């Protein structure tokens, strides 16, 4: 394994400090963010940006959760855990998957079943059951597979219709993406859908957009949501844009453990500062 600065800082510097502080506060839950569970290689991509997790690596990570007595809960249960402080004495984790790739059905679900773990899969509905269009060249789930998975305890949420960068759209188009994806899932599953996952990097620096987006989600009767903002989530997080921990094939068990314990949270601040600086530079051009 080549040297990786974020891994080094997470395991050997920040994890010890952050874990002790959060253990005292006892108010955080890790929401894991996966995408594709496959052996597909991503050449020339920094580990931070990879979306693939090899099935063998994913199996090791799920076994770690099981052997270390983590309680895997549904995303909708997060708020309830914060309201019941005694439940935070447990080690709690939420498992989520963006993009609705077919390999969730073939590679991830059997492993989750082995440990009786649940998960939430977020669907970009234009790609579901449509072999003609793909995200990153990958096949997606079919509605029949989604129905089967739902019957087996897997939850589903919206990831928009076409997976656009929402902050570049008008409010009217944002509402279309959010409302129609919800309707498509509900029509196919025959049950209410109220969770949402923001596609692409989250625009922390665009406060007006975030406020508008929250209002649209509320208008469309969503009750929970996750973002790509890095960190373990806390009661103070906006329930529509909860933080998550990105996971991929380059996360060995020491790094995976540190991420679960909050050691990766330090990246949230530099990530936010970078977005602010980039926006100011672009606005000055």
- Derived from helix and strand composition plus strand pairing, the structural class reads alpha/beta
Low-confidence parts, pLDDT < 50 over ≥5 residues? none
Strand content: 15-25%
The helix content is 40-55%
Number of helices: 9
How far apart are the termini? Answer: 40 Å
Instruction: Sketch the topology as an H/E string, one letter per element.
Output: HEEEHEHEHEHEHEHEEEHH
Seen as an oligomer or otherwise, the chain set is single chain
Largest sheet, described in full? 9 strands, mixed
Q: Radius of gyration, Cα only, in angstroms?
A: 18 Å
What general outline do the C-alpha atoms trace?
Answer: globular
- Would you tell me the overall average pLDDT? 90
Compute the number of strand runs. 11
Key structural traits:
single chain; 285 residues; alpha/beta; nine-stranded mixed sheet; two-stranded parallel ribbon; 11 strands
Give an overview of the whole structure.
The structure is a single chain. The chain has 285 residues and is α/β, with parallel strands linked by helices. Helices cover 41% and strands 16% of the residues. The chain is built from 9 helices and 11 strands. The strands form 2 sheets. Strands 1, 4, 5, 6, 7, 8, 9, 10 and 11 form a 9-stranded mixed β-sheet that branches. Strands 2-3 form a two-stranded parallel ribbon. The protein is globular, with a radius of gyration of 18 Å. The chain starts with a helix and ends with a helix.
